């Protein structure tokens, strides 16, 4: 386990969700209290019963809505053709098989037409350089699912360092966040009889050594946080019972997530526990051999990571150390042991400007690779410690256009790196390089949709408070600015997640090839300009994100790119909350919307599944005075029967155990009863990502694009 790359505790809502499933029994109503704003009665909320995820009545309602939607679309030849084409793209062997290195092998998980649920496989670098790669298949999920009569979905694996002959494999039933962990023998290619096994729950298990693991999971009553994630982290030794594992850390019920991890870097082996209190609010402790905890005393809001001899701090707020104040958004580094001894000397690796922010950083054996966003465009640098100072220079051979990401291949062993590069129209390229040498092209995606005659441009809209909001537009080079173009405006705006240009053949075939204009808005709440951009739309300032999105919509109309009858919007998860607010607060700006795995009832979101883990982002409806501002962006309560609204397609998943499907169900029911033009589709599988396999992804994507195109072409 690389200590440098930390688990994102409880996981953000996600930027491009489609559909989702839920694992296990779910309550009809969760933790009601008459003293709380959220303690609504069935009289106040007549659709409360739809929160019963697996209830017979609720599922009967879901099937009825699905039947209506499927009857309409599955009779449409253009829908069937699009679904077929999207499945061909998703199953294509032309896709890049991305890999991760562990020991001598490069590992990959792959789905295609033959391998519906997917295969876990590995190869060597020499083989990976070939066009026809020879893979060693380690695990076939289709065969496993058939043999065990389970709907297994891949959730990752961790290979044991040193011997590289064992792995901990994580599997999900139907794509839920809840997983099981099982020990796997890489030589016999079979699960270890009597090996480490973690029953289904939200949590994780990871190697310490061959006979010891860290495990954070559901240990029974009182062992989970209010967000439904592990409150306890334990050390578990082979041959003992899970319930007898040793507690290394016990968090509070109000925490979001507790996780322990072992850093297996040769010469720098250490164990850590992270207490995540809320998003961007955590504490990091080193665990000694006798289980004493040493706190890494940095600001809770800073992202903390340890790599070999270094301690990195990515600041989200200004931090004063002695007489020096470091700016929010900066990346700092010091020697880890010196810091623990109270004599750490911090050096600045990156400091933001008005147009720049830190996209990511990735240490190699001797350097740090720095990825900077400048007006939402990537620039990659190498940082090297020379003559007592960190010195910066551009990475040789790094792409100069498009979106690029960079990561070390095996940071303990080499200065090798991977770069992926693409934009909306340029197929993704995977490069392999060594610092100070020109990288080689390992893989390049072929064109998967007709991009000829299209161009990408960046524009800026002015929000209500005067803030300049960037957005990207993909459109024909000979676009007629007469307001006639069907235009899809996509956004997210939350959890400091940036939306940067990337090649997406599903969007290309599903929307651009159909004559649509595609627009992505970089609104506040995201991370395009670092922490300040995110913090500008937190909690009581949430409306800034929606004002930004509205400003982009108005700018598109003012420029003649489109018109209200030809403008549609789309978003998933937190982006579904964005869409819900645009529908209820700005219905006059567009004609159709696709709202995917959304949050919508912000009065009760914190009581449903993982909702409590997002209160740092949105606020707590039951805390004094906070409902006053939360209700201004709670679409379920803001909806007014009798008012004119755009057409809306709601899409969610029964098995989404992150964002409760009750949000979409209840909003659909309320709008349907009021006579609004709405449709609904709920996938029975899929997890928060929306689909458990490529067939479901193709279906959901085709549904969204055909719905929007039909509405925008027929609107008057």
Structure notes:
This protein is α+β, with helices and mostly antiparallel strands. 19% of the residues lie in helices and 32% in strands. It is built from 14 helices and 39 strands. It has an 8-stranded mixed sheet, sandwiched between helices. Strands 5, 6, 7, 8 and 9 form a 5-stranded antiparallel sheet that branches. Helix 2 (77-91) packs across helix 14 (694-714). The termini are far apart. The model is unreliable at 1-34 (pLDDT under 50).
SSE layout and pairings?
Elements: H1 56-73, H2 77-91, E1 100-102, E2 105-110, E3 119-123, H3 125-128, E4 136-140, H4 141-148, E5 152-159, E6 166-173, E7 179-185, E8 190-191, E9 197-201, E10 204-209, E11 212-216, E12 232-237, E13 246-250, E14 257-263, E15 270-278, E16 281-287, E17 293-295, E18 303-307, E19 310-314, E20 319-321, E21 324-326, E22 331-335, H5 336-340, E23 347-350, E24 356-363, E25 367-374, E26 378-386, E27 389-394, E28 403-408, E29 416-422, E30 429-434, E31 440-444, E32 454-462, E33 468-476, E34 487-490, H6 505-510, E35 517-521, H7 531-535, H8 543-558, E36 567-572, H9 574-585, E37 592-596, H10 615-618, H11 626-630, H12 635-638, E38 647-653, H13 662-673, E39 678-683, H14 694-714
Parallel strand pairs: 34-35, 34-36, 36-37, 37-38, 38-39
Antiparallel strand pairs: 1-2, 2-3, 3-4, 5-6, 6-7, 7-8, 7-9, 10-11, 11-12, 12-13, 14-15, 15-16, 16-17, 18-19, 19-22, 20-21, 22-23, 24-25, 25-26, 26-27, 28-29, 29-30, 30-31, 32-33, 33-35
Helix pairs in contact: 2-14
């Amino acid at each position: 386990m690389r200590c440098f790359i930390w688990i994102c505790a409880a996981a953000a809502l996600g930027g491009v969700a489609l559909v989702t499933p839920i694992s296990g029994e779910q309550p009809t109503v969760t933790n009601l209290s008459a003293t709380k704003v959220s303690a609504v009665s069935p009289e106040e909320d007549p659709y409360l019963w739809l929160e019963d995820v697996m209830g017979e009545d609720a599922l009967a309602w879901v099937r009825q809505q699905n039947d209506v939607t499927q009857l309409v679309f599955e009779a449409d030849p253009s829908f069937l053709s699009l679904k077929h084409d999207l499945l061909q793209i998703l199953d294509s062997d032309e896709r890049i098989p991305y890999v991760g290195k562990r020991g001598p092998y490069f590992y990959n998980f792959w789905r295609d037409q033959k391998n519906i649920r997917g295969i876990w496989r590995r190869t060597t670098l020499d083989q990976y350089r070939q066009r026809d790669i020879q893979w060693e298949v380690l695990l076939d999920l289709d065969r496993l699912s058939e043999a065990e009569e389970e709907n297994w979905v891949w959730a990752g694996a961790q290979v044991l360092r040193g011997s590289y002959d064992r792995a901990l494999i994580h599997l999900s039933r139907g794509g839920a966040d809840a997983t099981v962990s099982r020990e796997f023998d890489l030589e016999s290619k079979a699960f270890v009889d009597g090996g480490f096994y973690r029953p289904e729950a939200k949590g994780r298990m990871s190697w310490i050594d061959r006979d010891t693991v860290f495990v954070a999971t559901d240990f029974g009553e009182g062992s989970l946080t209010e967000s439904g994630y592990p409150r306890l982290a334990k050390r578990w030794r082979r041959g003992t019972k899970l319930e007898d594992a040793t507690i290394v850390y016990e968090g509070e019920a109000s925490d979001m997530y507790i996780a322990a991890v072992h850093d297996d870097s040769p010469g720098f082996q250490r164990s850590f526990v992270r207490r995540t209190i809320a998003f961007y609010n955590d504490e990091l402790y080193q665990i000694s051999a006798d289980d004493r905890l040493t706190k890494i005393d940095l600001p809770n809001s800073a992202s903390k990571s340890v790599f070999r001899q270094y301690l990195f701090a990515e600041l989200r707020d200004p931090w004063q150390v002695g007489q020096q104040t470091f700016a929010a958004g900066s990346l700092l580094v010091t020697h880890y042991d010196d810091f623990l001894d109270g004599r750490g000397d911090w050096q600045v690796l990156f400091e933001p400007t008005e147009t720049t922010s830190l996209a990511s950083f990735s240490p190699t054996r001797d350097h740090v690779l720095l990825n900077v966003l400048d007006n939402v465009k990537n620039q990659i640098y190498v940082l090297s410690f020379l003559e007592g100072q960190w010195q910066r220079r551009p990475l040789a051979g790094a792409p100069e256009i498009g979106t690029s990401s960079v990561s070390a291949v095996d940071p303990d062993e080499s200065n090798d790196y991977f770069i992926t590069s693409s934009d909306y129209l340029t197929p993704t390229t995977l490069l392999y390089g060594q610092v100070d040498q020109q990288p080689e092209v390992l893989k390049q995606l072929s064109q998967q949709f007709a991009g000829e005659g299209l161009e990408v441009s960046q524009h800026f809209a002015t929000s209500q408070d005067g803030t300049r909001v960037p957005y990207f537009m993909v459109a024909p080079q000979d676009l007629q600015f007469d307001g006639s173009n069907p235009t899809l405006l996509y956004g997210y705006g939350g959890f400091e997640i940036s939306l940067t240009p990337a090649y997406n053949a599903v969007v290309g075939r599903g929307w651009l090839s159909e004559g649509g204009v595609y627009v992505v808005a970089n609104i506040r709440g995201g991370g395009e300009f670092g922490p300040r951009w995110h913090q500008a739309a937190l909690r009581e300032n949430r409306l800034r994100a929606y004002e930004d999105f509205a400003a982009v919509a108005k700018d598109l109309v003012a420029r003649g790119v489109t018109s209200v009858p030809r403008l549609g919007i789309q978003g998933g998860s937190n982006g579904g909350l964005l869409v819900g607010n645009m529908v209820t607060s700005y219905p006059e700006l567009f004609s159709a919307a696709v709202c995917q795995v959304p949050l919508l009832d912000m009065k009760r979101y914190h009581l449903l599944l993982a909702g409590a883990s997002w209160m740092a982002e949105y606020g707590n409806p039951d805390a004094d005075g906070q409902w006053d501002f939360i209700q201004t962006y709670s679409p379920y309560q803001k909806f007014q029967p009798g008012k004119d609204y755009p057409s809306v397609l709601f899409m969610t998943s029964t098995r989404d155990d992150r964002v409760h499907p009750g949000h979409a169900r209840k909003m659909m029911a309320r709008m349907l009863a009021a006579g609004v033009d709405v449709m609904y589709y709920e996938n029975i599988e899929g997890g928060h990502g929306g689909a458990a396999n490529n067939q479901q992804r193709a279906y959901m994507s085709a549904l969204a694009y055909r719905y929007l195109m039909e509405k925008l072409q027929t609107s008057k």
